[in-house]
Amino acid sequence: MRAALHTAPNEPMRIEELADPQPRAGEVAIEVHSCGACHTDLHVLKGELPFPAPAVLGHEVAGVVGEVGAGVTGIAPGDRVVTSFIMPCGRCAQCTRGNEEICQEFFTYNRGRGRLYDDETRLFRPNGEPVWMYSMGGLAQRCVTPATSVYRVPDGVELADVASVGCSTMTAYGALRHAGQVQVGDTVAVVAAGGVGSALIQLAALFGAATIIAVDIEQDKLDAARGLGATHVINSAETDAAEAVREITGGRGVDVAFEALGSVPTFGIARDSVVEGGRVVVVGIAPRGTSAEFDLATIARRKLQITGSYGAKPRRDMPVLLDLVGRGLLRPQDAITRRYPFAQVQDAYDALRAGETIGRAVVDMPG
């Protein structure tokens, strides 16, 4: 098969031939139809998140099941599926407590070593050299992943439309539902209207938020945010965003502010935009070692809640999201603004690095 290999920080990915990966017990092989271009991949490409190389990145996969390993039930060859970027082991202490989004095996084996849960990769060059996997390694014609991260796409839904459900949409849902606890009538600010920010805006509207304020430095992203459900937009390059949020909310601030980029300035806007007793949810993945400041007395006096959110709970939440997609209530395709053929996979990430991508970009694989 052909795959896009990351070989060193800040070097372009290159397309190479790899051996077809084979599923082992409890795993599924997927013929990849499309894969979303995620900012977290970009952190690895830039060397901001340590990860072994050579590696295949890509973790927003839509495709067709090609083969299943021993013991897999409920999924069969020919099924149209999407994957969740979190691949819960289902047996560690966090998974058994219902905290699949912080699965210990996932972080130890996959994020730490680029492997699956027998401590081995499924990817190899023709000479037998191992190639490491970021999640399932979806920037390839075929990938292998634990069955716990594979979900059927509803009938009538195009595969080309749903790759991003497994990361940006699932990340947004986890932040809104579990960390932010957004309820009907709440006021919400989304700071950074990129891929995850776009999904946060869509879902906040679906959750019934009364006021949804999008904050960004790019006017074209703010214009797109209105189309996804933002009731107000603020260009933080032109105005004091936190002050503008308070003006919109009658001086009180929002109930929940989501930081969706992973930077000190966007965290500061989110922190300063919430009402007393409000929640600041950090969703964006910052480069390792990034530190932000906050006044401890202010947190105590204003009873602020600052929490992180890495994603949703795959086995509980992915079926909910896909049901919403199947009923037409959630339209992830509305946030897709760019599509790239596999031969131009590096262009997708160059555009992401340059801040040119509005919403989500998708890489389409050759058949």
Automatic annotation (TrEMBL):
<dbReference type="InterPro" id="IPR013149">
    <property type="entry name" value="ADH-like_C"/>
</dbReference>
<dbReference type="InterPro" id="IPR011032">
    <property type="entry name" value="GroES-like_sf"/>
</dbReference>
<dbReference type="InterPro" id="IPR036291">
    <property type="entry name" value="NAD(P)-bd_dom_sf"/>
</dbReference>
<dbReference type="Pfam" id="PF08240">
    <property type="entry name" value="ADH_N"/>
</dbReference>
<dbReference type="InterPro" id="IPR020843">
    <property type="entry name" value="ER"/>
</dbReference>
<dbReference type="InterPro" id="IPR013154">
    <property type="entry name" value="ADH-like_N"/>
</dbReference>
<protein>
    <submittedName>
        <fullName>Zinc-binding dehydrogenase</fullName>
    </submittedName>
</protein>
<comment type="similarity">
    <text>Belongs to the zinc-containing alcohol dehydrogenase family.</text>
</comment>
<dbReference type="GO" id="GO:0008270">
    <property type="term" value="F:zinc ion binding"/>
</dbReference>
<feature type="domain" description="Enoyl reductase (ER)">
    <location>
        <begin position="8"/>
        <end position="363"/>
    </location>
</feature>
<keyword id="KW-0479">Metal-binding</keyword>
<keyword id="KW-0862">Zinc</keyword>
<dbReference type="InterPro" id="IPR002328">
    <property type="entry name" value="ADH_Zn_CS"/>
</dbReference>
<dbReference type="GO" id="GO:0016491">
    <property type="term" value="F:oxidoreductase activity"/>
</dbReference>
<dbReference type="Pfam" id="PF00107">
    <property type="entry name" value="ADH_zinc_N"/>
</dbReference>
<keyword id="KW-0560">Oxidoreductase</keyword>
